[in-house]
Amino acid sequence: MQNPLRRPRGNSGPQRRHNHDVERNGPRRGGGDDAVMSQGARGHFVAMMLGGMVAAALVSCMFPGSATFQTKLTGDTSIAQGLFIEMFLTAELILTVLFLAAEKSKATFLAPVAIGLALFVSELAGVYYTGGSLNPARSFGPDVVNRQFDGYHWIYWLGPFLGAAIAAGYYHFAKWNRYEEANPGQDAISDNEAASAKSG
Questions:
Q1: b/e for 119-140, b at 16 or more Cβ within 10 A?
Q2: Are 131 and 70 in contact (CB under 8 A)?
Q3: What is the pTM of this model?
Q4: Which of 48, 63, 95, 151 has a CA 20 to 30 Å removed from the CA of 133?
Q5: Is residue 147 predicted with pLDDT exceeding 60?
Q6: Would residue 13 be called left, alpha or beta, if left means φ above 0 and alpha means ψ between -120 and 50 degrees?
Q7: pLDDT in tens, 8-18
Q8: CA contacts within 13 A on the Cβ side of 104
Q9: pLDDT in tens, 106-125
Q10: Are 131 and 86 within 8 A, CB to CB?
Q11: Contacts (Cβ under 8 Å, ≥6 apart) of 142
Protein backbone atom coordinates (compact mmCIF):
# COMPACT_ATOMS: atom_id res chain seq x y z
CA MET A 1 0.00 0.00 0.00
CA GLN A 2 1.34 3.39 -0.96
CA ASN A 3 2.12 5.79 1.85
CA PRO A 4 -0.03 8.92 1.33
CA LEU A 5 2.60 11.06 3.06
CA ARG A 6 5.36 9.96 0.72
CA ARG A 7 6.12 12.26 -2.18
CA PRO A 8 6.03 10.69 -5.64
CA ARG A 9 9.33 10.14 -7.39
CA GLY A 10 10.51 12.49 -10.10
CA ASN A 11 9.61 16.08 -10.73
CA SER A 12 6.15 17.14 -11.68
CA GLY A 13 4.05 20.25 -11.84
CA PRO A 14 5.60 23.56 -10.76
CA GLN A 15 8.83 21.94 -9.57
CA ARG A 16 9.44 20.38 -12.97
CA ARG A 17 8.74 23.66 -14.74
CA HIS A 18 11.08 25.44 -12.33
CA ASN A 19 13.89 22.95 -13.00
CA HIS A 20 13.34 23.35 -16.75
CA ASP A 21 13.56 27.13 -16.44
CA VAL A 22 16.76 26.87 -14.40
CA GLU A 23 18.34 24.52 -16.96
CA ARG A 24 17.36 26.78 -19.86
CA ASN A 25 17.89 30.26 -18.43
CA GLY A 26 20.12 29.65 -15.43
CA PRO A 27 19.31 30.47 -11.80
CA ARG A 28 17.54 33.71 -11.13
CA ARG A 29 19.66 36.47 -9.68
CA GLY A 30 18.47 38.70 -6.93
CA GLY A 31 18.63 42.47 -6.88
CA GLY A 32 21.79 42.38 -4.77
CA ASP A 33 23.62 40.27 -7.34
CA ASP A 34 22.62 42.65 -10.13
CA ALA A 35 23.95 45.61 -8.13
CA VAL A 36 27.26 43.83 -7.54
CA MET A 37 27.56 42.96 -11.25
CA SER A 38 26.77 46.54 -12.25
CA GLN A 39 29.37 47.89 -9.84
CA GLY A 40 31.92 45.37 -11.12
CA ALA A 41 31.24 46.41 -14.72
CA ARG A 42 31.78 50.07 -13.86
CA GLY A 43 35.01 49.25 -12.06
CA HIS A 44 36.21 47.16 -15.02
CA PHE A 45 35.45 50.02 -17.42
CA VAL A 46 37.35 52.57 -15.31
CA ALA A 47 40.29 50.16 -14.97
CA MET A 48 40.44 49.67 -18.75
CA MET A 49 40.43 53.41 -19.40
CA LEU A 50 43.16 54.04 -16.82
CA GLY A 51 45.17 51.09 -18.11
CA GLY A 52 44.99 52.41 -21.67
CA MET A 53 46.21 55.86 -20.61
CA VAL A 54 49.02 54.54 -18.40
CA ALA A 55 50.22 52.10 -21.08
CA ALA A 56 50.22 54.84 -23.73
CA ALA A 57 52.12 57.18 -21.39
CA LEU A 58 54.75 54.52 -20.66
CA VAL A 59 55.27 53.77 -24.35
CA SER A 60 55.56 57.50 -25.09
CA CYS A 61 58.20 57.90 -22.35
CA MET A 62 60.24 54.83 -23.25
CA PHE A 63 60.55 55.37 -27.00
CA PRO A 64 61.96 58.53 -28.61
CA GLY A 65 60.20 60.57 -31.24
CA SER A 66 56.54 61.34 -31.64
CA ALA A 67 54.01 58.69 -30.68
CA THR A 68 52.66 56.91 -33.72
CA PHE A 69 50.51 54.30 -32.00
CA GLN A 70 47.19 56.10 -32.32
CA THR A 71 44.39 54.34 -34.18
CA LYS A 72 43.56 56.23 -37.35
CA LEU A 73 41.63 55.63 -40.53
CA THR A 74 43.64 55.27 -43.71
CA GLY A 75 43.09 57.78 -46.47
CA ASP A 76 40.83 55.49 -48.51
CA THR A 77 38.68 54.35 -45.56
CA SER A 78 35.52 56.36 -44.93
CA ILE A 79 34.09 56.95 -41.47
CA ALA A 80 31.13 54.66 -42.18
CA GLN A 81 33.45 51.90 -43.39
CA GLY A 82 35.64 52.31 -40.31
CA LEU A 83 32.59 52.09 -38.05
CA PHE A 84 31.37 48.83 -39.61
CA ILE A 85 34.87 47.31 -39.68
CA GLU A 86 35.24 47.95 -35.95
CA MET A 87 31.73 46.63 -35.31
CA PHE A 88 32.07 43.33 -37.16
CA LEU A 89 35.60 42.58 -35.94
CA THR A 90 34.52 43.21 -32.35
CA ALA A 91 31.51 40.93 -32.81
CA GLU A 92 33.76 38.18 -34.17
CA LEU A 93 36.07 38.40 -31.15
CA ILE A 94 33.29 38.50 -28.55
CA LEU A 95 31.42 35.59 -30.13
CA THR A 96 34.60 33.53 -29.80
CA VAL A 97 34.84 34.43 -26.11
CA LEU A 98 31.18 33.66 -25.43
CA PHE A 99 31.00 30.29 -27.18
CA LEU A 100 34.39 28.96 -26.11
CA ALA A 101 35.02 30.53 -22.71
CA ALA A 102 31.61 31.41 -21.26
CA GLU A 103 30.09 28.14 -22.53
CA LYS A 104 31.62 25.09 -20.87
CA SER A 105 32.32 22.07 -23.08
CA LYS A 106 35.10 19.69 -24.03
CA ALA A 107 36.63 22.47 -26.14
CA THR A 108 36.81 24.99 -23.28
CA PHE A 109 40.48 24.23 -22.63
CA LEU A 110 41.22 25.54 -26.14
CA ALA A 111 39.55 28.89 -25.42
CA PRO A 112 42.81 30.84 -24.78
CA VAL A 113 44.27 29.65 -28.09
CA ALA A 114 41.07 30.30 -30.03
CA ILE A 115 40.58 33.76 -28.51
CA GLY A 116 44.16 34.67 -29.32
CA LEU A 117 43.72 33.49 -32.91
CA ALA A 118 40.43 35.40 -33.20
CA LEU A 119 42.16 38.59 -32.06
CA PHE A 120 45.05 37.91 -34.44
CA VAL A 121 42.68 37.47 -37.39
CA SER A 122 40.76 40.62 -36.39
CA GLU A 123 43.95 42.65 -36.30
CA LEU A 124 45.11 41.26 -39.63
CA ALA A 125 41.82 42.27 -41.21
CA GLY A 126 41.40 45.67 -39.60
CA VAL A 127 44.72 47.17 -38.54
CA TYR A 128 45.47 48.63 -41.98
CA TYR A 129 42.06 50.30 -42.31
CA THR A 130 41.16 51.46 -38.77
CA GLY A 131 44.15 50.63 -36.60
CA GLY A 132 42.34 47.57 -35.22
CA SER A 133 41.07 49.08 -31.99
CA LEU A 134 38.18 46.74 -31.00
CA ASN A 135 38.24 48.42 -27.57
CA PRO A 136 37.67 52.10 -26.69
CA ALA A 137 40.57 52.02 -24.22
CA ARG A 138 42.97 51.14 -27.05
CA SER A 139 42.10 54.37 -28.87
CA PHE A 140 41.32 56.63 -25.93
CA GLY A 141 44.64 56.16 -24.09
CA PRO A 142 46.97 57.19 -26.95
CA ASP A 143 44.70 60.13 -27.87
CA VAL A 144 44.83 61.42 -24.30
CA VAL A 145 48.62 61.13 -24.17
CA ASN A 146 49.01 62.90 -27.52
CA ARG A 147 46.26 65.39 -26.61
CA GLN A 148 44.81 64.89 -30.08
CA PHE A 149 41.34 63.56 -30.87
CA ASP A 150 40.30 63.10 -34.48
CA GLY A 151 36.81 64.11 -35.49
CA TYR A 152 35.90 60.45 -36.07
CA HIS A 153 37.20 59.26 -32.67
CA TRP A 154 33.63 58.31 -31.76
CA ILE A 155 33.67 55.31 -34.11
CA TYR A 156 36.12 53.60 -31.75
CA TRP A 157 33.41 53.77 -29.09
CA LEU A 158 30.27 53.14 -31.11
CA GLY A 159 31.77 50.39 -33.30
CA PRO A 160 32.82 48.07 -30.43
CA PHE A 161 29.56 48.82 -28.60
CA LEU A 162 27.48 47.77 -31.62
CA GLY A 163 29.69 44.73 -32.17
CA ALA A 164 29.23 43.65 -28.56
CA ALA A 165 25.46 44.10 -28.88
CA ILE A 166 25.36 41.97 -32.04
CA ALA A 167 27.46 39.23 -30.40
CA ALA A 168 25.37 39.22 -27.23
CA GLY A 169 22.13 39.19 -29.23
CA TYR A 170 23.20 36.23 -31.35
CA TYR A 171 24.50 34.38 -28.28
CA HIS A 172 21.17 34.74 -26.48
CA PHE A 173 19.33 33.77 -29.67
CA ALA A 174 21.40 30.58 -29.92
CA LYS A 175 20.83 29.81 -26.23
CA TRP A 176 17.10 30.43 -26.61
CA ASN A 177 17.05 27.92 -29.48
CA ARG A 178 19.05 25.48 -27.30
CA TYR A 179 21.88 25.15 -29.79
CA GLU A 180 23.71 22.69 -27.55
CA GLU A 181 21.06 20.08 -28.38
CA ALA A 182 21.80 20.26 -32.12
CA ASN A 183 24.53 17.63 -31.67
CA PRO A 184 23.62 15.39 -28.72
CA GLY A 185 26.52 13.65 -27.06
CA GLN A 186 29.19 16.01 -28.37
CA ASP A 187 30.61 16.39 -24.85
CA ALA A 188 30.27 12.72 -23.92
CA ILE A 189 33.32 11.05 -22.41
CA SER A 190 32.76 7.62 -23.97
CA ASP A 191 31.17 6.30 -27.16
CA ASN A 192 28.47 4.54 -25.14
CA GLU A 193 27.54 7.80 -23.44
CA ALA A 194 27.39 9.59 -26.80
CA ALA A 195 25.18 6.87 -28.31
CA SER A 196 22.89 6.99 -25.29
CA ALA A 197 22.55 10.78 -25.58
CA LYS A 198 21.69 10.57 -29.29
CA SER A 199 19.14 7.79 -28.82
CA GLY A 200 17.55 9.56 -25.86
A1: beebbeebeebbbbbbbbbbbb
A2: yes
A3: 0.71
A4: 63
A5: yes
A6: left
A7: 444 444 444 44
A8: 0
A9: 778 889 999 999 999 999 99
A10: no
A11: 52, 56, 67, 69, 70, 71
